[in-house]
């Protein structure tokens, strides 16, 4: 895959994630009054989620169709997917992001 293809893949992944986030925001419009700041923050989080999921999809060697599906869905779930990714990364590199080890140390002392 050349650089132009990678750029377009990234643009498409982010677009699908943002559209997923927009779909979620529009789904919530009847439940709460939406402000532009809330909409923009949701779309930013969705786009960021899409980029992170795209990178993860490359690690696992997923096909283009799967990449599109999971990037769109990552936009829909937004911050929840970032929590899941944070746990995966912390487990993979051995970093305790929740600070649970500190609690265990202080509880046992």
Extended strand count: 0
Mean pLDDT across residues: 84
Give the termini distance in whole angstroms: 54 Å
Structural class: mainly alpha
| Major pleated sheet | none
Give the low-confidence spans. 102-106
The total domain count is: 1
Instruction: Kindly estimate the percentage of residues that lie in beta strands according to DSSP.
Output: under 5%
In which range does the helix fraction lie? over 70%
Helix count, DSSP H or I runs of 4 or more residues: 5
Radius of gyration: 17 Å
Characteristics of this structure?
5 helices, mainly alpha, 109 residues, 81% helix
Topology:
Layout: H1 3-28, H2 36-59, H3 64-77, H4 79-93, H5 100-108
Helix pairs in contact: 1-2, 1-3, 2-3, 2-4
Give a written overview of the molecule.
The chain is 81% helix and 0% strand. The protein has 109 residues and is mainly alpha-helical. It has one domain. It starts with a helix and ends with a helix.
TL;DR?
With 109 residues, this protein is mostly helical. The chain is 81% helix and 0% strand.
